[in-house]
Amino acid sequence: MKKLILLFILFTSLGIMSSKSQCTISDLKVRLIQVNTGTCEITFDLSWTQDVNNGNKFAYVHMWTQSGYHTPVANWAGMYSNPRSYPIAADLANSLSTIVIDDNSANTPLIGGIYHPDPSYILPQLSGLSLVKVHLNNTLIERITVQNIKLTLPSCTGVQTIWFDIWASQSANGKNVHCSKQGANLVINEVKPIGFISCVMPRQFQVFIQNTGPVLNNVSYDVHLDYPPIGIINPTDTVIFTSENISLPANGFYTSAVTGYLPYSNRDPSAGLPLIIEVTVPFRPNTTTAIIDNGCGPLSVKFTSFTAIQVKDKIILNWQTATEQNNSGFEVQRKQVGNEYNTIAFIPSKAKGGNSELLLDYSYTDNDNLTGAGQVYYRIKQINMDGKSSFSEIRVVKNNVEKTKILIYPNPAIGSARVILPDGIGTTDILLHDNTGKEIKRWNSVVGHLQIDNLKPGFYLLRIVIKETGELKVIKMIIL
Fewer Cβ neighbours under 10 Å: the N or C end of the chain? Predict the structure, then answer.
């Protein structure tokens, strides 16, 4: 029988090893939506990374409480050990839920309404479930998010641990077991992040994290710009802030400082986007996320386009606005590697009285001969009549190397991971630090990819210096 190539890439290494091929999952993220303290019903989103071939047809996720996992025990001897050893209704009597994913390898997989191995098993709490797939850098590695999972727990308060099995089939009838994984888990309701965005320009955010258990040390969090699909961390989401390690008091709150996030907080569309908080607690199988809604209005000027094109020894800038309110004009700003932005020109607003609802076109030609100067960065600073300002997006001419994001894969990992550098980024220096900031190892002039092996469990920081531009990328890496 052809081996299933569906691999839910796992790095929790928990549970009972099956004799079948292992379905595994990585980079688990939980977004807690609601906890009903009256009914003990919890609602959350669950996302993971997977690698799927075209042969995969069905995936199944069975969930239990920690105390109810695999009960009755006798039913689970040899489960998933051969193609016909799949759970039936009697085996799942004590489970919290089963999620069925139909046509898992398609671009738009669906939440299934029937448990194909045993249609007599009634799938619980399907109302409101939805599924989103996002491709990561290539078509083989994907991120799946199941939204609005509802479970009724035995306790309405405190930290909750959910255990689950996952198995998959590429049979047309969805019955034969081709890969399986038993005993993965999620920690839910331990930390509850929330936040707000201040609409004063430039915009700022503040983060609050509630801890429902004992003291937690060496906790960290990232804040992402939340590009669509909203509520899901995906490759288009830019990390705008990474915290130092913090401590969460027992049954208490952590409160961050009010933090700015220029230049994103001062320009559309990024200034109008919501943010996502992602909290990492050491030695937990998943991170916890939350959306910071953005209720701020639009900026004074809405840019519809901004381009920078090199023509021989000149660089021609063109931009267009759809609306302008109280706009005085635009500063053209330029930056070369290793320098700050400098204003090289001012272009007055074409809008009568600074206000317009029409499309207005602007242009500026940079006549400085920058041939051979490496990358040159441009942005437009819009200035209101009251002196307030906002920025356009940044444009780069000559050798734009930021084509795709740097990928640490897998992350979290067991023992080893690979740093994958995008094409065109050139040579990089890569420094590995432990969670105290101590440098452990350094690799110079890396191109393409770097394999890092024999790492002890813990949290690490990778500092990646792009030599051509001087840019520094800092990425957290977790070894389980």
Answer: N
